[in-house]
Each structure stands twice: as C-alpha cells, then as structure tokens.
Amino acid sequence: MLLMVTAVCTVTLSHWLNRTLSNRALLLSDEAKTVMRGYAADAEQAWLKEGAPGVAAWIAAMAEREPGHIMVVSQDDQSLSGMPLTESERDGLRFQRGLEWRMSFRYRSMPYIGVPFPQRPEQGRLVMQLPPRFMPAQDWPIWESLLMVGLPALVALALALGLVLFWRVRGPLRGLQQQVMQFKDDPEARVHPPLSQRRDEFGDVARSFNHMAEQVSAMLTTQRQLLNDMSHELRTPLSRLAVALESQMDEQALRQRVARELIQMRTLVNDTLALGWQDTESDDAGQESISLWALWDVVSDNAAFESDWHPSRFPCDLPVDAQVRGNLNALAQVLENLVRNAVRYSPAQGSVSLCGAREGMWWHLWVTDQGPGVPAERLEDIFAPFVRLDSARAGNSGFGLGLSIARRAVQRLGGQLWAENVSPGLRIHLRLPAAV
After folding, report:
1. Considering only CA atoms, which of 24, 2, 17, 25 is closest in space to residue 148?
2. 232 an active-site residue?
3. Whole-model pTM?
4. Which residue segment(s) compose the domain that 363 sits in?
5. DSSP 29-50
6. pLDDT tens digits along 310-359
7. Which sign does the torsion angle of CA 154, 155, 156, 160 carry?
C-alpha cells in the first residue's frame, strides 16, 4: 500500500513539475524582449524619418547583425521597405507570435516574432525570426529527463533508504519494548549486550533503562526487607502485650506496660517509614546553605531536654562561619539520630561533641561519644537496618534504624558517613559538600 501511494504521488508530482516548469521555460527572457522592442523602435524611426528607403537601409544593416528573415510591414501585412515579401516571409507572417507568447519545442526553424511600433503601432510592426541566442528552453530536454527519470529514481532511493533505516531502528526498539514489558513482571529483567553496548541513542536508552531497573529493583528489595524486618520486630512488643494482658497485673501497671509497648511500636513504624521514604525523595530537594553552629545549637538543645543533660555536655569545635550545602530537615534528622545514639550509649557524666575541618570543597565533621564503642569488625554492620550490637553496647533499647537512616540521608545529600572506634567511645564521621 505504501509503495502504491508513493508511486502515484511521484508520477503526479513529476507530471505537475514537468508541465509547470516547461510552461515557464518556453517564455522569452526579459533580455530578449528588451532587444526585440529596441529593434522595433529602430524600425519605426527609420520609417518615420526616411520612409521606405530608410526601412530598406535599416533591414540591410540588420541582416549583417542578426540571422534570419527581417520584415517591417503595415497593419495589412504590406512591406514598408518597398521590396515585395517572399513566399517564405509570407509564411512567417501567418505564424508569427507575440513577445509574451510561449514558444514551442516543435519548431524546425526559428519562430517569427511580431513587435508593434512602440509609438505608432497603427502604422506598422517589426516581424523577424527570433535570434537563436534568445531561443528559450534550449536545455529543457536535460531538465525534462531529470524530472521524468531522476525524480522517481530519487524518490525510490529515499524510500529504500527509509525502509532500511526503519528495519535498523525496528530491531533495537523491539528489543527495548520486550525488556520493558518483561520488567513489569520480572524486576530482574535487563537489556543485555549487544544492545546495551551500542554507542548511539539506543545504547544510551538501554543503559538508562538498566540503571533505572537497578534502582527500582534495589528499592523493591529494600522495601521488602524493611517490611519483613519490621514485621519481625513487631512480634516482640506484641508478644509482650499478649503476656501482659493474660497476666494478673494491676490496671495501673498494665496501662504503663501497654503505653511503653505502643511507644516502641510507633517509633519502629515511624523510623521504618522514614527509612523507606528516603528512596522516593528527590536528591536536590530544598538545597540551601546551612550554618553548622546554628544547626548544632538546635540539635544539642533538643538532646539536652530529652536526656536531661546540661548543654555544656554537647561542645562544638567548629568555626563560626562553617556552612554546608544540603537539605535542612534531612541534615537535622541526621545529627539528631547521631546524637540520640551517642547519648544512649554514653556513660554517666559523658559528653557528645561535634568537631570538623574544611577539606577543599567539603566539610569533614565527626560526632564523638565516650561509650564502649563496637567491635572493629562490626563497624560497618551498625549502618544496616535492624542491626543491634547488644554485646558491645548492652542494656540499651532501640531498633537499629537510626544510623541506617542517617547514612542514607547523608548519601542523598552527596556525602559520606562512616564510623571508627576511639579511646574511649565511638566516632561517626560525616563528609558533606561545603557551601560556596
């Protein structure tokens, strides 16, 4: 169907172009018209000034300049030169054409052109064979061949190239489509080589799809793991509630136990949701310059109120003008989790400090407590969700989500978070972009 429509359109276009261009090509040029009108004006002056002898002399002079027959005749086709017209000249009079007429490709000799006297057309006109140099469309056969043969060939070539391009594009597109459709049911579906290794737009799309699929797959895995871990963690307070309800506890003690377990479950749910929502937030949402002194002042004030510590137990050793770039709420949550965790494991009369130094375009910060620290081989494990190292920090509650939430938040701010043991205590390091 496409080939048929293309063929019909090509033939129609070729015919229309051939007719339109041939009509234009058969008209006399402006130069030819100007020259012919000038000859008519010269013949008129010769007639008006000297009569028939003057016209005869002008024709004799023109015969040396232009080839072909030249006549000056009256309105009734009588010669104004005093010499009778020959039979061939009279034939030319019968088939003479005007300056604005189209010529023809069928002439065996140059056509006769009639041009009235410009000032007194009623007295006569010039009739002469068109000079060969003014014959229009002398190269028309070449153009006609191009239109009738070259244009269809060009269209056919373009169509062939289009079909080849279509088939070359269709393969990668179908490959991408299959993987996208498969990804709906299988999160592990990926675009495989050679499509993903192409060095063109299709390769870029394939690699972008694989990157997106990795992120989505990782997010789904994390969400499933969080759901499983949260459901496991919820069993413990629910079991304690069941035991408490079946026991012979008095009403006041039962209320206290239920309130304590509900607070723990609410904390667990809130922390788990906060950890899961971090995967759906924009990396650059609400980016701004943040004063570390002002932020630490707010965080330490809240921590002092919650722990009943004196504010002096939260020293800050940073320049007053220290600033980082990030999201204020996210960074405040990070420091709050770090400080709460440090306070939880600090000894009596311990302290939690914030220190740091500028390193090029980064601020290297560290939050240090005076607790027991953790085993060196488990320093990385403390950032995994629901990991609690009770053997290292016994006697403390929590679900092991604070450091995991903090690390993900710092990574989304473009920074890094890691830990090391000091003597005494645990030191959490942060590397954050400095505000320019």
Report:
1. 17
2. yes
3. 0.46
4. 285-433
5. PHHHHHHHHHHHHHHHHHHHHH
6. 999 999 999 999 999 998 888 988 998 899 889 988 998 899 999 999 99
7. positive
Matching residue, tokens 């999201």: 327
* 295 shares a domain with 239: no
Helix (H) or strand (E) holding 427: strand 426-433
Per the residue annotation, which of 232, 310, 364, 429 is the catalytic one? Answer: 232
Phi, psi of 133 (to 5 degrees): -70, -15
Residue range 98-107, pLDDT digits in tens: 888 877 756 6
Q: Per the domain annotation, does 190 fall within a domain?
A: no
Task: Specify whether 116 is located in the same domain as 200.
Answer: no
Q: Does residue 289 share a domain with residue 409?
A: yes
For every residue of 339-377, which 3-state class applies, written as one string? HHHHHHCCCCCCCCEEEEEEECCEEEEEEECCCCCCCHH
The answer to whether position 377 is within a domain reads yes
> Strand 353-359 relative to strand 316-317: parallel, antiparallel, unpaired?
parallel
Q: Is residue 348 a part of any domain in this protein?
A: yes
Residue with tokens 């000894």: 347
Give one word for 286, left, alpha or beta, with left for phi > 0 and alpha for psi -120 to 50: left
Residues 130 and 228 in one domain: no
Return the CA Rg of the chain: 49
Quote the number of domains for the chain.
3
